[in-house]
Amino acid sequence: MLQFNIRGENIEVTPAIREHIEKKVEKIERFFTDGANATAMVNLKTYNHNQTKVEVTIPMKNLTLRAEERHDDLYAAIDLIVSKLERQIRKYKTKVNRKFRDREGMGLAFAIAESEAQNASSAETDDEEDLKIVRTKQFDLKPMDEEEAVLQMNMLGHSFFVFTDAESNGTNIVYKRKDGSYGLIETTS
């Protein structure tokens, strides 16, 4: 069962908005075999009362779903977010199941896939000599291969992803290049 944490910036979260968000986002529960025991974190922002940005993040035990959308209409943005989340789930489920279908006990690979991550730290420079850390996050590095790491990175909408390589047990980084291809950084001790 999904729980909801809905926040609004420059917008009041009315009961009608809350009800619409819960009704629409709960539709993704049908993709989960055991039901989704997670909290959907929804952030609503308005800019000059003419454009709305909706962000939905659903961290689960083995997977983090995330999507954001900007639109002039708040309700349309919520509908687009749900469509994005459904596409992410279907794409990920298909790829993971295809990869693990021959392995014993992996028929429900989506539900037990080994991939969890959150945003890495981000830094902002005030001037050339002064670096200021504006956000710090911690996350567990789950063992996975490069393909799973790229899938997780794309689902989160990030340009890079840090993970533990399942074969070498080393910490690696996959990243999206400007030309749309992917790169891998392997660390050495």
TrEMBL record:
Molecular function as annotated in GO: ribosomal small subunit binding
GO biological-process terms attached to the record: negative regulation of translational elongation
Gene3D superfamilies per record: Ribosome hibernation promotion factor-like (3.30.160.100), Sigma 54 modulation/S30EA ribosomal protein, C-terminal domain (3.30.505.50)
GO annotations of cellular component type: cytosolic small ribosomal subunit
CDD domains for this protein: RaiA
Keyword Cytoplasm applies: yes
Domain Sigma 54 modulation/S30EA ribosomal protein C-terminal, first and last residues per copy: 129-184
A Pfam family the protein falls into: Ribosom_S30AE_C
4Fe-4S is among the record's keywords: no
Chief location category: cytoplasm
UniProt keyword terms in alphabetical order: Cytoplasm, Translation regulation
Top-level division of the source organism's lineage: Bacteria
Binding partners and assembly: Interacts with 100S ribosomes.
Biological function: Required for dimerization of active 70S ribosomes into 100S ribosomes in stationary phase; 100S ribosomes are translationally inactive and sometimes present during exponential growth.
HAMAP family: HPF
Protein name, per record: Ribosome hibernation promoting factor
